[in-house]
Every structure is written in structure tokens, then in C-alpha cells.
Amino acid sequence: MNLALALQLLIQGILLGGIYGLTAVGLSLIFGVMGVINFAHGQMMVIGMYISYWILVLVGLDPYLSLPLAAGAIFILGYVIQSTVVNRILDFPEAMQVLPLVAMGLILENLALLFWGPDHRSPSTALGLATFTLGTATVDVSRLIAFSLAIAFTVALFLFLKKSAIGKRIRAAADNRLGAQLVGIKVNRINNIAFGLGAATTGAAGALLLPLMPVSPHLGHDFTTTAFVVVILGGMGNLLGALVGGLILGVTESLATLLLPATLKQVVSFGLLVVIMLIRPQGLFGGRR
Amino acid sequence: MKRLYLLLGLLLLVLLLLPLVLDKYALGIFVMIFFYAYLGQSWNVLTGFTGHISLGHALYVGIGAYVSTFLAQKFGLSPWLGMLAGGVLATLVALSLGFLGFRFGLRGVYFVILTISCAEIARLVVSHIDAVGSFSGIFLDFKPGLANFQFRGNLPYYYISLGFMVLGSLAVHLLARSRTGRLMVAIREDEQAALALGVNTFKYSMTTIGISAFMTSLAGTFYANYVYYLSPNSMFGMGLSIDLILRPIIGGLGTVLGPIIGSFVLTPLSEVSRAYFAKGGLEGMHLVLYGVLAILVVLFMRQGILVYIKRALKPLLKLED
Amino acid sequence: MGQKKSEGKEVSRRAFLKTCGAAGLGAMAISFGVPTLLKAQPKPIKIGSIQPATGPLAVIGQGQRRGNQMAVDFINAKGGIKSLGGAKLELVLGDSETKSEVGRSEADRLIKEGAVVLVGAFESGTGMAVATLAEQRGLPFLVDVATLDDITQKGYKYTFRIFPTSTAFAQRGTDFIKEIMAAKKLSPKRAVVTYVGDAFGKTQGGFFIKHFKAANTGIEIVEEISYPLGIPDLSGEVAKIKAAKPDLLFPICRPGDSMILTRELYKQRVELLGIISPGSPGWYEPSVVRDLDKLALYVMDNVPWINPASPVYQEANKLFEQKYKAYLDTNTGWAYTGVLVIADALERAASIDPDKIVAAFKATNFKDHPMVGDAVQFAPNGDNKNATTAMVQVLPEADPLKRVKVVLPQKFAQAKLVFPAPQLWDRG
Lengths: 289, 321, 428
What we know:
The structure holds 3 protein chains of 3 kinds. Chain A is mainly alpha-helical. Chain A has 11 helices and 2 strands; from the N terminus they run ααααββααααααα. The termini of chain A are far apart. The model of chain A has no long low-confidence stretch (mean pLDDT 88). Chain B has one domain: ABC transporter involved in vitamin B12 uptake, BtuC. Chain B is built from 14 helices and 2 strands; from the N terminus they run αααααβααααβααααα. In chain B, helix 2 (24-50) packs antiparallel against helix 9 (201-227) and helix 3 (58-75) packs parallel to helix 5. The longest helix of chain B has 27 residues, at 24-50. By secondary structure, chain C is of the alpha/beta class. Chain C folds into 2 domains: 2-164 and 309-362, Response regulator (Rossmann fold, 3-Layer(aba) Sandwich); 167-303 and 389-412, Response regulator (Rossmann fold, 3-Layer(aba) Sandwich). Chain C is built from 13 helices and 12 strands. Chain C has helices spanning 2-20, 23-39, 58-77, 100-112, 124-137, 166-183, 199-214, 235-243, 257-267, 286-292, 311-324, 330-349, 354-362, and strands at residues 45-51, 89-95, 115-120, 141-143, 159-161, 190-197, 220-228, 248-252, 274-277, 300-303, 390-394, 404-408. In chain C, the strands form 2 sheets. Chain C has a 7-stranded mixed beta sheet, covered by helices on one side. In chain C, strands 2-1-3-4-5 form a 5-stranded parallel beta sheet, sandwiched between helices. In chain C, strand 8, helix 9 (257-267) and strand 9 form a beta-alpha-beta unit. In chain C, helix 4 runs parallel beside helix 5. The chains are: A mainly alpha, B mainly alpha, C alpha/beta. Chain A binds chain C through residues 2, 4-5, 8-9, 12-13, 16, 110, 113, 117-124, 128-129, 131, 138, 140, 143, 209, 212-214, 216-219, 221-223, 253-254, 257-258, 261-263, 266, and chain C through 54-56, 58-59, 61-62, 197, 225-228, 230-237, 239-240, 242-243, 255-256, 259-260, 263, 266-269, 287-288, 291-293.
């Protein structure tokens, strides 16, 4: 066993896991509150990437600085999607809820294709190639930033839900929609905000990923699946669980590189998923069933 | 009810005679309508009737396609027989998946994840088996002939797929009316209550997933000998899994006619939007339109299109409900 | 859509009869059709183009459409098909969405709309589906780009391919690498091959590895790394490459992953003599050259490239640059050539009867094309006997649109190759 390589992979896995976590946190929040799976999640992230790409190319503002704008724009997108579509399907049978969100993903993906064309776009950014060494291992600065911000955002979101007035209403609506309605909470509006927040985190993830990978309309698809796996690992609806789930997945996939070709790495994540689900269906850290 | 059957019989007659006036392209569209209606029906058996949502049904399509094609290429076995072999394997796989899911009581989203995971694992594993072409997939030989399940024109494919759809729907209809079928619905409505009444929900869930997988895998063989190319991503991928559930959802979940109606709406919709909007300079427009229409259908026809058709035809057919 | 339908109906009915009917029936339809055609403006001849214009390969598919369309415009500007009374060509577009069954259905639709020849399909799976359909319908299909050998090995009579096969790529690639090492008096020992995990990557990679190992180059392939199409992160794979301590990297990419790979090689400071692709996209596209900028430099790619000396190329490329701010590359170049080869066959066939077009294809000896290699001539199985590749290299030049240069073979070379390349992080 090559120790230096293992160390390198471990570091990369942890950093990658933070990003996985951030993409999954929003999905988990949306599921926790509304009980729907946002199949358009990855596509929303891609729109976030395009927005920070646009700002970078047109104004020259670095993705890290335009992050609030990307997150804000995707917040609005999420708010609109919730108020126009998702609020109307909340009491549909589970299987019926799949279609509108799958279709939403298709729409977003192809709108991106129409607006930005099919090219893979990967502009160079200020910190895009920055690294430093830690012993024998190389640490990628933009990944480290993404990782740190991912943790910060998740914790902030968690505290927001715990402490703020809106957060409390969101939790109330998640626990008992009817009850919340009875005590005078405008549940639909609260849902809009919750979906918007979930979307905003994925928009922020998009801005953080722009320095790391080329953006193209079709990119979102795989991120939805990954986010999905992460959410199940951590427990549906459990935000901190999603972060830890992301870390587990990142490290497992990265270390699996030692033994398996990358094309088989996902077998490990899906296998892990099945095993965990059978043993602890509520996810590693508990969640909504 | 009698009038409904009469109407259906009439429609079937129309479909049987339709090729007289259709060109090859139109025939091809109908083949896809029947194909997806049949696939939707096969999925409907499991999800529509028992409520266990599978988002990994591509797994069985893939098994059906790969097994029959492999046997045909390696041993010269007719796909008509290979199809049954694929069906048996698909059933066995489904039963083991079902065993895990039902034994451990995975419901709702957790069952969804289980089905996705198994399909994805299968896709990745098949991608690494050199005997079936790994990533490259299988390129089928074109040897027209009834025994080979391969034909020059679209006409035989039309009738075969129509047969699949009609016989599949008939089977589901009979099943739904049987005691098993009624118990299946009981599981969907309230599994705990069914259990309390002494229904062996495990047994019925297992039966259903087996039937569903068997039916689904047959469609795989058809696909292989219609398109002549199989790849792990297209046959086992999530794209197909999602594609094949859209029609029953739009048509009406848990009804026998739902998948058929859904397919008659959705398949031409995707075909027409592509034909008229997939022009140069507007690449992607047709998929946006398709998505918007699909959302509208769900929003405004929440119980599926079938309910509205029934309502419209009520006076004519003297239906009860 | 209105005018298309009213005008297309007659044509499609006729074309339909022709495609499904026996040769005699087709000939009759033509003998009826020709006199009326001659009097008025002859009806346009439709060519059906099936490319992956949406989905994961959209970037290439849309380029293919442009290549096809520009060649159609070129032929029309020169007076159309003269032997058919100056009939203009018309491109009818199909979108495979990168799915085989959609490609098949689109092909059927284009035939119905009156296409007499099909061209496409970039992705080999769709290529196979369309080739089988062409065989079923008895309509000629010209593969402009698609590498998998299988397509032309099914004994189909109606399918022709102008693009090199994976076998041809592997042989040429190995020879070029030997030639470069000999010329530079280098004897590297270790190499890593990476390929993307899809039909193209697996075949292209597998054939290259097999051929390279058998070729006694003295270079050992110490690691083979495959990764899924559309992977968002290659840090693990690059760490593995670094640990294998290769002198050379032979990557087979799709656009997108090449950018991740190169940046990651930079970040992890993987020292290499150079990056030489055995033949894949991802290195020469305008967007890659622009976005990677200095990091894209010195990469070599073994591809069936344009012939810089060809006047046909120069004329086409000028238009392409004006219109799309991009240059003709391997894929768009062959898409362009595909339609030229079809026009040439139509000219000699002087007919739109499918079997006469097929006969004309078989007799093709088409020299005036924009790509490297001799005249397009088809072997009995339908492959272009003279399809070949060149080694191109991305070299420093102020204008990003002029950076990709042919360096081998000498006959076509535009610049001297630079090897070994300066390390990615030593480029100022």
C-alpha cells in the first residue's frame, strides 16, 4: 500500500465530501419540510454555476464574491418553483410527485442549453490553480474554500432553522402541516421560503464549484443522484447528517480509487447505501421516515 | 360496463387496421406508443397496485435485452426463447430485491432508493463484463426472420408491440380482478390494516414484483431487436427508469387503461415536439416544451387523464362510478 | 411548418414509394418525375442529418449540424447537383438526443420527410441503430463521424463510413508515438492510459492499449485508468497517475473531462514529458483551447484532422470562422466532408434512386475534400480505405483560433512539434 497516495486520497475525499454535503443539504431540507424529492436539484446547481459564470465573464467578479448573487437568484428560482408547482402537488400520491420535478429538471437543463449553448465552459479564476503542500500531500485551495464554506453554510442554515422566527415556522410546518395552518402560519409561504433556502444552498454550491469543474447544461444530472445518496446516508431531512453523509461518501469514493477503477467506485457508494438502509433505514443520524 | 368493452374492442379493431393507412414513420411512432404503454403497464403492476414505488425498472429491461441477445449471439438461440430465459432471470433478481425490501419493511422513499441502487449497481457491473461488450455494449446482427425476432419493415414490429400491449393489459386486468389483485390494492391503501386482517402482505408483494419484473424484461428483448444496439447506460440507466414510469403516472396510476392512455398522450407529444422544434438554433426547445406540458398535465389532471376521459364518456357508456 | 407540410407531401409520398418499393418501381417514379422537374426549378434533394444535438454530447452534435449545413450551402452556392438539373440540396435535421432509439425514430421521420440519403451520427450506438434502419429501408447512410469498428462489420450494403475506425486510430497513434520518440532521441519507459467509460472510450482505449503493447515501443503501460462519462472530479485518478510515475500520459477524453484532467495534473504537479492523446476529443476544440489557455498548449492529439494545404479547407474554414467564431476541426470537418461526398455521389448517380446512389458511393474517388489523407474510396465493407489521421499539437500563438497545428506527418505539417513539453506550471 502506498501511504503517500492514501493520505492524498484521504485529504481529497474529505474536501470533496464537504461539497457533496453542501449539494445534499438543500435536498435534505426540502425533503424534510415538504416530503418531496427535488429531482431538479442538480440542474438548479448548474443554473447557479452559469450565473456566477456570467458574472465572472461579463463583470469580472470572482465566483467567491458573486456567490451571494448566485444563491439569491436560485433562492428566487426555488421560491417560484415551489409556489407555482410544488405547493400544488404536496398531497398527491408519492409516485405522482416524481413527474413534475423530473420535468422541471428537464426544463432547466434545456433552458441552460438554449441560453448558454452546449459548450463546456471553464474560465480560469483567481484561485483556480492555487495549491499548497502538506507534508507529501497537495491541498487544493479552491476545494478547501468550498469545503470550509460548505460547513459554514450548513451550520448557519441549521442555526437559522433552530433559532429564527421563520426557521421555527418552517419546522412547525414540517412537523405538522395542518397544525401549523391552524395556529395561523401561512404554510404555503413558509414552504416557498423553505424550498428557496434549499435551492439557495445548491446555488451557492454551484458558485463554489465553478473554479473546480467546467459547467455544461448536462452536468446537473449526476449531482442529483449523488445528493440523493448522501441524503439517505445521513438521514432524510437531517441537515447535519447530510454533511456527514457527504464526508463519508467523499472519503469512501476517494479511497476506493486505491482498489477499483473510477467507473466502479459508485458500486461502493450504492452498496454502502443499500447496507445502511437495511440496517438503519432512518439513516446514520436519524431523520424523517 | 358492456359498452366500455365494446368501445375498447372497437378501438382495438381500429388499431389492427390502422397500418393500412400509415407510413413507416407513423408506424414507428405507434410502435413506441405500444412499447411504452406495455412498459408502463408492467411497472404499473407493482407500483400502481401495491404502492411500492420502483425507480429502477430499467434493471429488468436491461436483463431482458442482454440475456436474450447474449443467448442469440453466443448460442444462436431464438430471442423468442431467450426472452423467456431473460424473464426468469429478471424474476429471480426482482424476488431477491423484493425479499430485501419487503422483509426489512422498506416503504416509500426507502424502497425507491433500494430499486435505484440495485439498477445502478447492475449498470456498473454490466459495464465491466467483457462477454457482453462492457461499456461498448452489444451491436446486434441484423438477420431478418420471424425466428430471429427481426424484420425489415415496421409492420411486424407494430403488431408484435400491439400484442405485447394488449396481452399485457389483459393479464393485468385479470390479475386486478382476482383475489390477489384486490389484496394488492389493500396493501397499497393500508399495509398495516391488511396485515392486521391476516393478509400475508409479504407474499403478495413478492408475487407482484415477480410478475412486474417478468413482464418488463420481455420489453427488453423487443427493444434489442428493434434498435439493434444495447449499452449499459441506455438499458440499465436511470433515464429509462424515469422514462418508463411517466406514462402510467399521467394516464392514471393503478388503472389498467392508464398506462395506455398516458402513452398515447406522452409519446406523440415528445415525437411531435421534436419534429417541429428540434430545428437548428433552437436545440433543447422541444424538451422544454415537453417538460412544461408534462407538468401541466399533472397539475390539472391530478388523478390522471383516464378519470377525465371516463367522466366525459360517462353518459355514452353508462358507467357507474 | 405549414409550408413544409403542403410542399413536402408530394415529395415524401414519392420518396416513400421509392424507398420501400423495388428498384423498378423507383425507376418508374423517377421517369415520371424528371420531365416535370426539368421545366420548373428542380425540387431540392433532401439529406437527413441525425446528430446528438441535445443531451450530453450536444456540444459535438450541434457542431456536426453546422458542418453538414455549411457543406450544403457550399454545394448550393456552386449551382447544386448539375446532373439533376441544378437541384439544390436541403438538410433536414434530426436530433438523436444521444439515445439510440430516438436516433432510429428520427431517421424514419427524415425518410418520411423525403430524405434520400442519411448522414450522421457521431455516437456509435445511434450509428448502429441508423445503419440497421438504413438496411431495412434500403436507403444509403453515410457515417460522417463514428469510430467503432462494428458499424461496418455487419455486412450492410447501404452503410458507408468516411471516418477512420478505432483500429486505424490505434495503429496510427502507436506509429506516431514511435516516430516522435525516435526523432527526439528519447526513450521513455512508463506511460499511463486514461479513458472515459463509454462505448467510444472503452473501444478506443482498449484497441490502443492492445496495439501499443504488441508494438514493442519499449514503453510500458503501467496503469490503465477509466472513469465515468461526465465525472465532476478527477483528483483521485490524478493522484493515482502521479503515484504511477509515468513519463507519458495517453488520455482518451470527451470535452469537459479533459479540462478537469489538465487542471488537476497542474495542481498535483504531475511531471510528464508530454500528453499525447491516441485520438479523442477534448483537446483541440476552440472552447478547450480558449479556457485552458496555457495549460492546453503542447498537448498532442492523433486525429483525422483537416489538411491545412487544401483549398477546400481554406474556403470552408474562412466561412466557419466568420459564422461561428470557431475553426473546422476533426468532427465538423468530417461532417462537412460527409455532405460533399454525398453530393459527389448524387452528381455521378444523376438520380435519387437509392441503389444508384449506393452504386455511386462504391465508385467514389473523391479528392477535393478538406481533410488529411488521400481521396475518399470505399472498401467493400463500406469503410473509407484512405481514412487516416494526423498528429496535431496546440502551439503558442496570440490568436486562440490558430493554435492547433498539424505537426505530423511531415507532408501536412504546419509547424515543428515541441517535445518534451514544458511542465504545466512552468509556463509563465
